[in-house]
Amino acid sequence: MGVSRNSKETSSKTKPRSTTLKYLFDLDSNFGNNPSSPNNGKRSSFDSENEEILSAISICSTVFTFTDPAESPSQQELKRLKLSQLLASTKSPKKTLDDRILSRLISMLSTNLFRPLPPPSNTSIISELADDEELFYSPGPLWPHLQIVYDILLRLVLDMDPKTLREYINHQFLINLLSLFQTEDPRERDSLKNVYHRIYAKFTFYRSFMRKSMNDIFLHYVYETEKLCGIGELLEIWGSIINGFTVPLKEEHKLFLMRVLIPLHKVKGMQVYHRQLAYCVSQFVQKEPTLGGVVVRGILKYWPVTNCQKEVMLIGELEEMVENIDPDQYRKLALPICTQITRCLNSCNSQVAERALYIWNNEQFVKMAQSALEEVFPVIVEGMERNLKLHWSKSVKQLTENVKLMLEEMASSLYSRCLQDINLRESEAQQEEINRKQRWERIEMAASLNGILQQKQYICVSH
Known about the structure:
mainly alpha; single chain; elongated; 463 residues; 21 helices
C-alpha cells in the first residue's frame, strides 16, 4: 500500500510539469494576447506612440510655399503644431528613436530645409553700404516652420550619438547645409551657424571635410562671385575653430591664413564681415606672433585705392596687428607700415586722415616707429609738413600739429634734419622748374628766329 500511495503522490505532483510543445506554444500565445499582461501594455503603448510620431512626420513632410492660394491655412497651422510635437518628442530624455523613425525624420528635415532659394535681391548694394546701415530684408513666410525644423535638427545633433547619425548626416547632407548660407534671411543663417558648428564639434570624423568645404566657399566667393550672404557666419564658425588650434600650428592651418583669410581683405563688400575676419586673423597672430609679418604684408598688398570705409577698417586692423606681432619684426615692418599710414593721413577724406593720425596714440605703434627712426622719419615728416600746408580740414591740421609736437619731442634733432632735407629738395625742385621754363623759352625763341613759327595760312575753296 505504501508503494501505491507514493506512486499516486508522485504522479499527482509531476503531472502539471509534463508539458508538450503544443502546450508551450499555446501558453505563449495566450500570454501575448492577454490584455492584463504588463509587457503587452508597454508594447502596445510603444507602438501607438511610434505610429503617432510617424503620422506627424508624414504631415510635416508636406512643404508649403505660403504663396499658393490653393494652400489651406488650417493645414499650415496643423503642420506647425505637429512640428512642435516632434520637437517635444526629440527633447524627451526617456525616448529613443529607432531606425525606422530616425530615417523618416531626417528625410522630413531634408525635405523642408533643402529647397530652392529665391534669387538674391540686394547683393549689388552690399559693397556700397555705410558702416551704420543694414540690409533691408522682408521676413520670409516659411520661417515659422523652418525655425522648428532647425531646432529639431539641433536637438538630434546634441542628444544622439554621432555614430548613430553618421548614416543620415553624411557628406552630401553637410554640403546641402552649406549651400543654405546663401539665404538672405539672417535668422536662418544664424540657425545654420549653430547647427553646423555643433556638427563640427561632435562629429570629429567630419572635421577635415567640413573645413575643406568651407574653404571652397570662401575661394569661390573671393575669386569668382563676390556674392554670398553667409560669409560672416562662416567666419564666426572659423573663429571658434581657430581658437581651438594647438601650437605650433599645422601647415594646413597656416595655408588657410595665407590663401583664404588674407585674400578676403580685397573684396569690395569686406565691411560686411570685417569684424569676424579681423578676429580670425588676430587669433592666428596671437597663437604665433611670427605670422604677423605675413598678415601685415598681405593687408598692405590688398590696400584699397578709392574705398574710404575699407581704409578706416584696415587702419584699425593694422593697429591691432602691431599690438600682437613679435617685437623682433618691428624693424622690418616699420617702414612699410609707416609709409602706408602716412599716405592715409594725407588723404583728402577727413575720416581716413583722422584715423591715421589717431594711431599715433598707440604706444606699441610708437615703439615700432622708434625701432627704425632713421628709416621712417623722412617719410613721416614729409607727410606731416604736407598736411600742415595743403590739407583742407582744420581738424586734420590740428591733429597733425599735435603729432608733430610729439615727434619733435621724440627726436628733435632728427626731425630738424629731415625738415632741412625737405626744404632742400623743395628748393632744388623749384630751381629745376625755373631751369625747365628757361630752356623752353630759348627753344621757342630759336624756332621763331629760324622761321619755323609762321602765321597760319588759310586756303579758300570756291564752290
